[in-house]
Design a protein that fits this description.
The chain is mostly helical. It has helices at residues 3-81, 87-168, 173-185, 208-216, 234-238, and strands spanning 191-195, 198-199, 221-222, 229-231. The chain has 2 domains: 3-168, Helix Hairpins (Orthogonal Bundle), CATH 1.10.287; 173-238, no CATH class.
């Protein structure tokens, strides 16, 4: 095999390695998105907990305000009792006082319930706030790990790219251009191995004379069907 053909094998191996590295790089945005989602979920949980706490506090204050109004109303009715002279009016005022007192009692019970709920909601809000703090710290640490992992993979990619460029520089300009053309057309696999007179990628059987030319390794022959550059490794075939 000529040095140029050896280089083609080497470049193909590097392109295969580059493909694997780039597949790993694709995963990093998804990892960051998952971490962002975790943090967003913790923020949403805190917002819901705080909203629930505020709603209970507002309901309690509203009930307290209504109860206070009823207390004032009772006092007003009590004052009026001393001023009325008719039994009917007196009885009506007593009914109003009883109604206000009953409604106030119900509101006070409601206030007590809301106080308990408010306490539970405040505790839940505190837990959600702590959970958010812990999640934020964990996400920041994991993002640093992602950045470090991505940096290592990018360095690996840069190293492979440098090796690839150095290898390609050893090819004649026409052969390099030919390889790059097939590499792009075949989505990263420009070279195919000759296996028992057939293309090792598409399986197409070559004419005997073409297979002989590939085995001789004196020229680069393209598969007549898939267009990949065919190379032959005697040691590989002899082991089959």
């Amino acid at each position: 095999m000529t040095p140029e053909l050896e280089i083609l094998w080497r470049v193909q191996d590097l392109d295969r390695a580059l493909g694997a590295v780039r597949e790993r790089l694709v995963a990093f945005p998804a990892r960051r998105a998952a971490l962002a989602q975790r943090l967003s979920a913790a923020k949403d949980a805190l917002a819901r907990a705080e909203d629930a706490s505020k709603a209970r506090a507002l309901a309690k204050r509203d009930a307290e305000s209504q109860a206070e109004s009823l207390t004032q109303q009772e006092r007003k009715f009590q004052t009026q009792l001393t001023q009325v002279k008719k039994n009917e009016e007196y009885a009506a005022l007593l009914a109003e006082i009883e109604g206000a007192r009953k409604k106030r009692s119900e509101l006070e019970t409601f206030v007590l319930e809301k106080m308990e709920e408010e306490g539970a909601a405040a505790a839940a809000s505190a837990r959600a706030k702590q959970a958010l703090s812990e999640t934020d710290s964990a996400v920041k640490a994991e993002n640093r790990d992602v950045d470090a992992d991505e940096g290592r993979v990018k360095a690996e990619e840069a190293g492979l790219m440098a090796e690839r460029e150095a290898a390609l520089n050893g090819l004649p300009a026409s052969l390099r251009a030919r390889y790059e053309r097939v590499h792009v057309a075949k989505k990263g696999q420009a070279v195919a191995e000759l296996v028992r007179d057939s293309c090792g990628v598409c399986g197409s059987r070559l004419p005997p004379q073409t297979a002989i030319e590939v085995r001789r390794g004196t020229a680069v022959v393209e598969c007549p069907d898939c267009g990949r550059m065919l190379l032959f490794k005697a040691d590989v075939e002899s082991s089959r």
